[in-house]
Amino acid sequence: MFSDTASAPPADLIKEGSDATFMADVVEASRVQPVIVDFWATWCGPCRTLGPMLEQAVRAAGGAVKMVKIDVDKNPAYAGQLRVQSIPTVYAFVNGQPVDGFQGAVPESQIKAFIDKLTGGTSLDGDIDQLLSMGAESLKVDDLGGAAQAYAQVLQLQPDNEKAIAGMARVYLAGGDADQARQTLAMAKPDSRDPEVLGVRAALDLAADGPSDTSELEARVQADPTNLQARFDLAGALAAAGRFDGAADQLLAIIAADRDWNDQAARKQLLTIFEAAGVNSDVAKNGRRKLSSILFS
Fold first, then answer.
1. What is the reported pTM?
2. Is 47 labeled as catalytic in the residue annotation?
3. In this structure, are residues 126 and 135 in contact, taking their beta carbons and an 8 Å threshold?
4. Which member of 6, 35, 47, 202 is catalytic?
5. Is residue 292 annotated as part of the catalytic site, yes or no?
6. Taken in order 40, 46, 48, 52, is the CA torsion positive or negative?
7. Cα–Cα distance measured from residue 190 to residue 168, given in angstroms and rounded to the nearest whole number
8. Which among 44, 64, 128, 273 is annotated as catalytic?
9. Is residue 171 classed as helix, strand or coil in its secondary structure?
10. Quick one: which H or E segment has residue 36?
11. pLDDT confidence tier of residue 213, bands split at 50, 70 and 90
12. What phi and psi values does residue 133 have, to the nearest 5 degrees?
């Protein structure tokens, strides 16, 4: 149905380099993407300040740039060729050539500006956030193809992005392929506390709990609206079919009739519905408002 193939994550974003590996790690690698070279030494105080800030900024760029650290005491050859006269000295390589650089410890804002200039401002965080928003909006209007495409692009950039993993799993679930949804969700960490991951897990649990055919239960509720057990069963069937808004309406009707019915079973199930639909979904937002109105009226 949908392809969830993703490329391998960027390898060795930050590595220790040497004169022996400089050509491969810096010159050749920079023909693929920009490479920052940090010339440093163990005795250099400013190096210990600058290095971690550089590493943090490179990671924040999400794979748009790599970094190679060169200890000039152990590897003097290329430092000499590049006329490194004081450390720390930082060079940026693109297409096999040094294109920019600076000396000394500089503030984080200057490091970010240096990387943004080097990558053309293509730090991936903004792109990923935009793609995730596009995926969520597509899901909201049942555009499963558009959602799958957006989430697949994120997973190509960040294969371990849990929001994209959860989004792709929702695409499969909405398309009726619960097995593939489970396989996709298995890409997330088992102990993940990401709300999107937890929501899909709840949705999968609901899908496995009840029948997908709701016609008989709907007839029972229509025949006797006061039959709270029938409403509860109908809510389960609707949730199993992914119709969370209808399931929430049935549970809210039970709470309105008897908020303590069956040891507050309807209220407990309603919270699961909110989680399964997504904590920021219209189902959850509207449902919480209606629940508050019932409880505090």
1. 0.56
2. yes
3. no
4. 47
5. no
6. negative
7. 17
8. 44
9. helix
10. strand 35-40
11. confident
12. -65, -40
